[in-house]
Amino acid sequence: MRLSVVVPVHDEEANLPELVARLEAVLAGLDGGSEIIVVDDGSTDGTFASLRRLHAEHPRVRAIRLRTNFGQSAALAAGFDAAKGEVVVTMDGDLQNDPADIPALLAKLEGSCDVVSGWRRPRQDPFWRRRLPSMLANWLISKITGVPLHDYGCALKAYRREVLEHVELYGEMHRFLPALAKWVGAAVAEVPVRHHPRRQGRSKYGLGRTPRVLLDLLTVKFMMSYWTRPIQIFGLIGLVLAAAGLGLAAVLSYQRLFLDVPLANRPILFLAVLLIFIGIQFVSIGLLGEMVVRTYHESQRKPIYIIRERLGA
What we know:
By secondary structure, the protein is α/β, with parallel strands linked by helices. It has helices at about 15-25, 45-55, 70-80, 100-110, 125-145, 160-165, 175-185, 210-225, 230-260, 265-300; strands spanning about 5-10, 35-40, 60-65, 85-90, 115-120, 155-160, 190-195.
C-alpha cells in the first residue's frame, strides 16, 4: 500500500462525513493503494457511531477507538502503528486542513525529502489568540531545534514510513515531529497549504497548552543534543558552578589569611559553599544519566545509529 492518511479526532461527529467524502475524492485520483485511518481519541459525542457508518460505506476507511482521551500524540501513535502505507499523511479532522493539498505534499516527498510539513497560508484563525502566539512559538522552536519551519502547528504533514519507525511519541511531542525526524537523519521540507475557518464544532487548542509546549521543547532540545551523552550538559553546568564556588572560596581564603578580613556573618561564604556542592550534584546527575542511558540501550538492545540503506551483504 502506498499511502495511509491518519486523522486523530475528538468530538468531530459533524465534520466526519464531509471529511471522508473529500478524502475519497482525492485518494481516488492517486496511484497505488490507500487507506484512511481515523483515530477516535475518547470522543463523548456520536463520533464513533458516525465512523461505523462511514466504514460500512467506504472500504478505504478504518477506525480506531481509544478508551479515553489520551491526547493527540497518543492518537497519532495509534494511527502510525496501524498504518500500512509507505507514506503516512496526517491531518486534523475539523475540515480546516484541505485534503486537496495532499498531492502537493506527495510530489515534494518524491524528491530527496523524508518529511514534508504544511504551512497554512493564509491562516484562518484569530490573530491575537492563535496566530501571534503561534508565530512566536514557531520562531522559538525553529531556533532551539535548528529545524526552521514557519508552521510547526500545521497538522497536515507527510512522512516516509521508515522515518516514523524510529520516532517515539510521548506527551505533546506530536508538534515536534519534524524536529524529531531531523534528529534521526530525515530531510525536512515545507510547502504552503490552504487553511479554512472552522465551521462546526469547537477548537481543542488554546493558550493553556503553552507551558506544556515549552516543557516539551526543553525535552526535545535535550534529546536532540545530549540524549546519549547527558554528562556533557550536566557535567558542564556542574563544573561551571563548582569553579565559581572554588573561585569565591579562594578569594575569601586569601582575604582571611593575608588581609585578616573576618568571614563570620558574610553571606558570600555560604554562597561559595553552596555553589561547590551544587556543582558536585550536577556532575553526579550527569554520571547517573550516563548509567541510565547505557542501561536503556544495552537492556533493550537499542541501536545508537540508524542505517539509511545498504549496499552488498
